Amino acid sequence: MATFPPEGYVPVASTVEGIELYMPAPEDGQTGEAVVEFKCPQCLATTAYSVSDGGLRCAHCGYYEPPASAVVGTGAETFEFTVETVSASRAADGWGTERRELICRNCSAETSLPPGDLTHTCPFCGSNRVLQHEAPQDQLRPRFLVPFQVEAAQCHEIARTWLGSSWMTPSALREAARVDDFKPVYLPFWTFEARTSASWRAQVGHQVTERYYDASSKSWKTRTRTVWRWESGRVQRAFSDLLVSGTTRVSVVLLQQVQDYQTQALVPYAHAYLAGLFAQAYDTPLETAWEEAREEMRGQTRKACRGQASTSRIRNFSMQLDFHDESWRYILVPTYVATYRYDGETYQVLVNGQTGTIAGQRPVDWNKVWLAIAAMLAPGILLGLFGASASVLGAILPPALVVGGGAVVLAFVLFVIGLIFAGITFTKARRMDDV
Fold first, then answer.
1. Contact 286, 188 (CB under 8 A)
2. Which of 139, 148, 230, 381 is found 20 to 30 A from 67 (Cα to Cα)?
3. Contact (Cβ atoms closer than 8 angstroms) between residue 419 and residue 237
4. Complete DSSP assignment for 342-390
5. Are residues 135 and 280 located together in one domain of the fold?
6. Is the peptide bond before 363 cis (omega within 30 degrees of 0)?
7. Residue 117 resides in a domain
8. d(CA 379, CA 419)
9. Helix (H) and strand (E) counts in the chain
C-alpha cells in the first residue's frame, strides 16, 4: 500500500487552505545555507516585510518582529581590490535563502522572487511573457543594503502629482493614466572609495593689452593678444560612496534621476529584508563597474586640475594620475517600479524607496510644445516684419527706436532670445519623450 507523502518528499508551505503540498527532499550532502521560511510564530502564516523600519510584520494577525540589524551607515565595511578579498567575498554567494527567478521575454529583465510568489508579470515593463525557475546562487552576496522607508501607498500620490507637474504632457494624462501597483524591488549597486593624486601641466592663456605704432595711419593704437605661459600644480581628491548601478535592465537615465540614496542608512545584509519583495542580482560585474567609477573619478580630478589654472584659456593640458586606497562594496538599494498605459503605450516609473524621489517616462503633447516655441519666436519675427514699414513702426514704437535701424536690431535681439528659449524647450521635450 502506497504511503503518503511518497518516500523522498517533504511538505512545503501552501497558500490555499486545506491543500497540502510536497516537494522532493534535498539530496544528502547538499551544501549551502539552510532555507529560512518566514513564518509567523503566532498564527503560522507567511510574514510580510514592513518597509517603515525593516522588521517583519504578519499581515494576518498583526504580529511584529523588529529588525535585527543595526544601522552602520558609511562605516560599513569596504573591501580592497585584491585576489584574497574578492575570493573571500565569493565564498558567500547567492541570496542566503531560496529564491525564484522571473525572466522577462519582453525586456530581458531577470528578477528574484520569494519562493511561493505567484507573480507572472514583469515589474519593469508589465509584460506577461515571463518564465520562472530557481534563482542561481553563483553570484556575490550583497553585504549591505538601504532599507525601504517609503510605503507603497505613498507612491500613488507621489506619481499622481508628478504626472500633472509638467505643462508639456497631455492635459488628460493625470486623470487618464492608470498606474499599476508599485512593486518594491531591491536593485544592485556598487559603491567605491578611493583617493586620487594628480600632477598637471598646461599652457595657460593670458590677455595682455599693448600699444603699437600703426605706420599706415601714422598713429599709436592699442591691441589685445593672448600670451601663453606654462603652469603646473598638484591635486588630491577623496571619493566616498561613489554609486555605480549594477544592472543594465533599468534605464540609466531614470536611475540617475532617483539616485539620491543616503548611504548613512546602510545596514548589514540579511535575507529577512527580502521577505515578500523582488530583488535583482547584478549583471554589471565588479571590474566593469570599477572602470566606470574610475572614469568618473578621473573626470572630476581633471576638472579640479584645470580649475587650478589662473585662467580658463588652456591648451596642451596633460595630467599624471594615481589611485590609492581603492575599495568597494556590493549593496542593494530600495526602489519602487511601476508601469502605466496611456493612449495604447506603456510607460515606466521609478520611485526611490528611501527618499520618495520619482522619475519616469511621460508622453509629450507636441502640439503644446510647437505652440509654445512659436510664441517664443513670434515677437522677433513680427517686429522684423514691422521694421519693413517705417510708417507702421512710427505708429507703434517711439521715434528713437526707428532711427538708425533700431527696430531691426531690437527684432534681431528678440529673435535670438526666443531662439534660445525655444531650443531649451525643444531639448527638454525630446529628453522627456526619449527617456
1. no
2. 139
3. no
4. ETTEEEEEEEETTT--EEE-----HHHHHHHHHHHHHHHHHHHHHTT-H
5. yes
6. no
7. yes
8. 11
9. 9, 18
- Domain shared by 274 and 414, yes or no: no
* Residue 242, all three cell numbers: 561613489
Separation of alpha carbons 306 and 308, rounded Å: 5
DSSP at 171: T
CB atoms closer than 10 angstroms to residue 357: 17
Give the Å distances, CA to CA, from 306 to 78, 229, 310: 31, 14, 9
Q: Can you tell me the distance from the alpha carbon of 240 to that of 195, in angstroms, rounded to the nearest whole number? A: 9
- Structural domain total, the chain: 2
| Predicted confidence (pLDDT) per residue in 402-413, tens digit | 444 566 677 788
Q: What percentage of the chain has pLDDT greater than the value 90?
A: 24
Co-location of 275 and 380 in the same domain: no
181 Cβ contact partners less than 8 Å away, ≥ 6 residues apart: 152, 338
Which residue, chain included where needed, has cell 507603497? Answer: 152
Q: For residue 62, is it within any domain?
A: no
Q: Which residues contact 140 (CB under 8 A, 6 or more apart)?
A: 89, 90, 92, 93, 282, 286, 330
Q: Are residues 131 and 252 in the same domain?
A: yes
The CA distances from residue 173 to 126, 161, 165, in Å, are 19, 11, 10
Q: Are both 160 and 100 inside the same structural domain?
A: yes
What are the DSSP calls for 123-164, one per residue? TTT--S-EEEEEPP--SBPP-EEPPP-S-HHHHHHHHHHHHT
Question: In the predicted model, what is the mean pLDDT of the chain?
Answer: 78
Among the ranges 32-36, 291-295, 341-345, which has the highest mean pLDDT value?
A: 291-295
Q: What is the pTM of this model?
A: 0.70
| Residue 258, helix vs strand vs coil | coil
- 184, part of any domain: yes
**336/424 same-domain check:** no
pLDDT for the residue 1: 47
236 forms beta bridges with 197
Which pLDDT value is given to residue 304? Answer: 95
- Shared domain check, 335 and 280: yes
Domain that holds residue 400: 366-434
* Tens-digit pLDDT profile for residues 292-333: 999 999 999 999 999 999 999 999 999 999 999 999 999 999
> Does a structural domain hold residue 5?
no
Q: How many whole angstroms separate alpha carbon 246 and alpha carbon 287?
A: 11
Other beta carbons within 10 Å of 32? 12
Query: Residue 118 corresponds to which amino acid?
Result: L
CA angle 357, 358, 362 (to 5 degrees): 160
